[in-house]
Design goal:
With 325 residues, this protein is an alpha/beta fold. It has twelve helices and nine strands. The protein has a nine-stranded mixed beta sheet with strand order 4-3-9-8-7-6-1-2-5. α6 packs parallel to α10 and α6 crosses α11. The longest helix has 21 residues. The radius of gyration is 19 Å and the shape is globular. This is 2-dehydropantoate 2-reductase. InterPro entries: 6-PGluconate_DH-like_C_sf, 6PGD_dom2, KPA_reductase, KPR-Related, KPR_N, NAD(P)-bd_dom_sf. Pfam families: ApbA, ApbA_C.
């Protein structure tokens, strides 16, 4: 098995190191000081489950890697459409792409045989079909990340919690390529269940992201601060309720209570969401997949979602008026 990690940041380098430890032929594609450190010293993982160092091949040139069996995509979702030149050298006729992204993926309505919206393109995450042109639907393997990592220093990954990467085919089949990838991930010390319908995991994680990410950026508050403020907790609950209604209209029925989801987020503590971290770093906010696509699906399914719409309007304006890089 040959795997390229395109965008070997905190999550990508962690996954690559774990797979390399399992004996997989892994190639990390990164840039800057992080790449230089991985080339010289390997990937050092600091984890409550045990520290280790792995030495997979690391490069900034996908042409050095060539065709692979899988591409683990560690880029932000808004970068997919412009990643064609990086992806092209990695793509063989059967190469699969594991998109480890937050929010709604570009392939969401692909393979939903019998659903009224089967094949529907979601403009927020596939504007003008630009992502599908780079990442054809048949290559996609869904992936939901339940893992928290950060780059502590170039080449050094701090694993904070979680090892689960749920994967699944858009058409709900249990495919040989998913099973093989799952076995490799498990051999590397990760959890990697193959889900019959990975969309349920997408919505369960999205319930948190769609509320806490934009609200934290708008208020500069941590997860626990949002949960402990009664009015903002109520706002989170309203956003989650609307999200569940949209999910069901879109053909999925996540089995989780809103109170349980909020309490789980509160236990994370004084954690800054990725969107708040991006805002403070002057980076582009990842709102398209996390909330814009949810509002678009609400429109497609004719589900009223006033709270989500209002919060989206506010975070969209913030993203347009903030310094981005």
């Amino acid at each position: 098995m040959k795997i390229a990690v395109l965008g070997a940041g905190a999550i990508g380098a962690y996954v690559g190191a774990a797979l390399h430890r399992a004996g997989v032929d892994v190639h990390l594609i990164a840039r800057g000081a992080h790449l230089a450190a991985m080339r010289e010293h390997g990937v050092r993982v600091l984890s409550p489950r045990g520290d280790f160092t792995a030495h997979p091949h690391a490069t900034d040139d996908p042409a050095e890697v060539g065709e692979v069996d899988y591409v683990f995509l560690g880029l932000k979702a808004y970068s997919y459409a412009s990643a064609g030149d990086l992806l092209a050298p990695l793509m063989g006729p059967d190469t699969a792409v594991i998109a480890a992204q937050n929010g709604i993926p570009w392939w969401y309505f692909h393979g939903m045989t019998g659903h009224p919206l089967e094949g529907q393109r979601i403009e927020a995450v596939d504007p003008g079909g630009s992502v599908t042109a780079v990442l054809p639907m048949e290559r996609a393997i869904g992936c939901v990340v339940y893992c928290s990592t950060e780059i502590e220093a170039p080449g050094v990954i701090r694993h904070l919690e979680g090892t689960r990467f749920s994967i699944g085919e858009p058409d709900r089949s249990i495919s040989p390529r998913c099973v093989a990838l799952s076995e490799a991930m498990i051999a590397g010390g990760l959890k990697c269940p193959v889900e019959k319908d990975v969309r349920e995991d997408i919505w369960i994680k999205l319930m948190g992201n769609v509320a806490f990410n934009p609200l934290s950026a708008l208020t500069r508050a941590t997860m626990v601060e949002i949960c402990d403020h009664s009015d903002s907790r109520d706002l989170v609950a309203q956003m989650m309720a609307e999200t569940l209604t949209i999910a069901r209209a879109a053909g999925c029925d996540p089995q989780i209570s809103i109170d349980k989801r909020i309490d789980g987020a509160r236990r994370v503590g004084h954690h800054k969401t990725s969107m708040l971290q991006d805002l403070e770093a002057g980076k582009r906010l990842e709102i398209d997949a996390i909330i814009a696509a949810v509002v678009e699906i609400a429109e497609l399914t004719r589900v009223p979602a006033p709270t989500l719409r209002h919060v989206y309007a506010a975070i969209d304006l913030l993203s347009r008026t903030s310094l981005v890089s």
